[in-house]
């Protein structure tokens, strides 16, 4: 089965239920080892993200300052921002399969499973957002992850280094910080639900970064590259030297980073 038309459809639609249906179809074909690309497959270079029809996209510097989580709207902006990351992550995981057909079947299954997780993450946050009276698209968003996917469209090594091993790994640094900030507002049931969702997402995101780590290392080996190429790639994308107030040493180690790498990223210590 040629899964590439299904993937293209899944990436371009803004209907989550359809993304899910198509993702599960692709996963079933991959699990039965029934995948072909056809002779003439050239992946489409998407010019805008699928959420462009639902959300107003703005420059990240123009995003409104997040209000106090004590107000309903303040809490909704936080939920919306995280839901947006999850939505973006769905399309990125699908694109990792779509754009690099030369990668092994196990790679395809890994990222289709990630896409399925991201659909679930978005679903939880979207339901919570609706329970506090808002919906996806009510607040402006930035398209940083879409841009990162576009910039790495020509190289699966760059894609693995930048998307899962940089951006998703940065999410592991941030997630516990958000949970900490919410801790003393837990008596609000919406906050409690958000914290439970963030905890579950956190566990599954470690696995996503780990998959990125696995395929990054696979590609290094295939191409005879030292894994320190990671820092060359970050430098090329101008991502080195960014200030990181909280590096989640344990989660990054669990996801496959070495202490040497973690220290290079700016951690004070790593054991
Ligand atoms: Fe996620
Ligand atoms: Fe993820």
Lay out the secondary structure.
Blueprint: H1 4-12, H2 16-31, H3 72-98, H4 105-131, H5 144-151, H6 156-182, H7 189-222, H8 229-236, H9 249-254, H10 259-264
Helix pairs in contact: 1-2, 1-3, 2-4, 3-4, 4-7, 5-6, 6-7
The site of one fe (ii) ion has 6 residues, from helix 4 and helix 7.
CATH topology: Ferritin
**How many β-strands, per DSSP?**
0
Number of helices: 10
Order of helices and strands: HHHHHHHHHH
CATH architecture: Up-down Bundle
**Which CATH class applies here?**
Mainly Alpha
Average pLDDT works out at 95
Shape: globular
Helix content: 55-70%
Helix/strand/pairing class, anyone?
mainly alpha
* Largest sheet composition: none
Rg of Cα set: 19 Å
Count of individual domains: 1
Distance between the amino and carboxyl termini: 47 Å
Bound small molecules, deduplicated: fe (ii) ion
Low-confidence stretches: none
Strand content: under 5%
Structure in words:
There is one protein chain. The mean pLDDT is 95. The N and C termini lie far apart (47 Å). The chain is an all-alpha fold. The protein is globular, with a radius of gyration of 19 Å. It has one domain (4-264): Ferritin. The protein is 62% helix and 0% strand. Bound molecules: fe (ii) ion (2 copies). The site of one fe (ii) ion has 6 residues, from helix 4 and helix 7.
Which features would summarize this protein structure in a list?
271 residues; mainly alpha; Ferritin; 62% helix; binds fe (ii) ion
Short structural summary:
It contains ten helices and no strands. With 271 residues, the protein is mainly α. It has a single domain, classed as Ferritin (Up-down Bundle).
């Amino acid at each position: 089965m040629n899964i590439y038309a299904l993937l293209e459809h899944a990436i371009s639609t803004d209907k989550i239920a359809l993304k899910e249906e198509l993702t599960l179809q692709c996963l079933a074909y991959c699990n039965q080892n029934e995948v072909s690309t056809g002779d003439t497959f050239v992946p489409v270079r998407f010019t805008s993200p699928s959420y462009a029809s639902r959300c107003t996209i703005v420059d990240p510097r123009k995003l409104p300052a997040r209000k106090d989580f004590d107000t309903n709207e303040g809490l909704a902006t936080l939920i919306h921002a995280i839901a947006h990351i999850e939505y973006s992550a769905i399309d990125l995981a699908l694109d990792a399969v779509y754009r690099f057909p030369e990668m092994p079947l196990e790679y395809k299954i890994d990222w289709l499973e990630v896409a399925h997780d991201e659909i679930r993450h978005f679903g939880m946050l979207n339901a919570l957002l609706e329970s506090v009276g808002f919906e996806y698209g009510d607040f402006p968003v930035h398209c940083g992850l879409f841009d990162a996917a576009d910039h790495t469209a020509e190289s699966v090594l760059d894609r693995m280094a930048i998307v899962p091993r940089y951006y998703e790994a940065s999410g592991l640094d941030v997630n516990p910080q958000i949970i900490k900030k919410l801790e003393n507002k837990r008596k609000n049931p919406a906050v409690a639900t958000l914290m439970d969702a963030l905890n579950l997402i956190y566990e599954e995101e470690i696995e996503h970064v780990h998959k990125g780590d696995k395929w990054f290392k696979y590609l290094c080996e295939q191409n005879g590259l030292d894994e320190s190429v990671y820092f060359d790639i970050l430098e090329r994308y101008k991502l080195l030297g960014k200030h990181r107030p909280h590096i989640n040493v344990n989660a990054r180690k669990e996801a496959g980073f070495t202490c040497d790498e973690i220290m290079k990223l700016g951690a004070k210590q790593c054991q």
